[in-house]
Amino acid sequence: MQPEKAKWTRHVTVPNGLSVSRVLLGMPLWFALSSFAANPSLVNLWPLVLILTYAIVSDFLDGYLARKWGQTSSVGSYLDGMADHLLLLITLYQLWKEFEFPGWIIGLYLFREIYTIWIGLWLYRVRGRIGKSDLWGKLTINLAALTVLLYILEPLVSRGQVERTMFPEVSSMLLALLMLISMLSYFRRYLYPLIRGMDLSEVD
Prior knowledge:
Elements: H1 2-9, H2 14-23, H3 26-38, H4 42-68, H5 74-98, H6 103-127, H7 135-152, H8 154-158, H9 167-196
Helix pairs in contact: 2-4, 2-5, 3-4, 3-5, 4-5, 4-7, 5-6, 5-7, 6-9, 7-9
């Protein structure tokens, strides 16, 4: 029991705690989005801004601290990815339901998720490794958070409380582009080497 306990104790780290805290933001984010959709106001906007800001900052910090303190692990990578995907799925669904977010981008996101999960399962089965998010994946998540905020502002725009811009449409197009680039990056890093039987020891 002692070795097993020690094995799990090493995963109890500040970076992993930050990832878990983002997972726990799922329900507060859902209710904050629903409340703002029901009653768009600057007062109801602030909880969303705070939640999204915390999600972005903690997403940066968990990876940075894990590398700085030498606490990177497969468990940490899994928790980090799960937190990112959970929050993004919740926000995109609510945007489509309440804020007229383009449904085809959500379809592209779901395809991207199935695609990366399939590659990840194959990678784990064949090589016993867990794929890690790269720069393109992180950029996709952070641009998604910005896109969420811009679309959330639309009810305030229609009321004249916020000036109308083309930023929501532009950011949603950039988000779709980054999703495609991140899928190509995942293919290059994991799927192509698996197909060719190449060594993955150099892959981060």
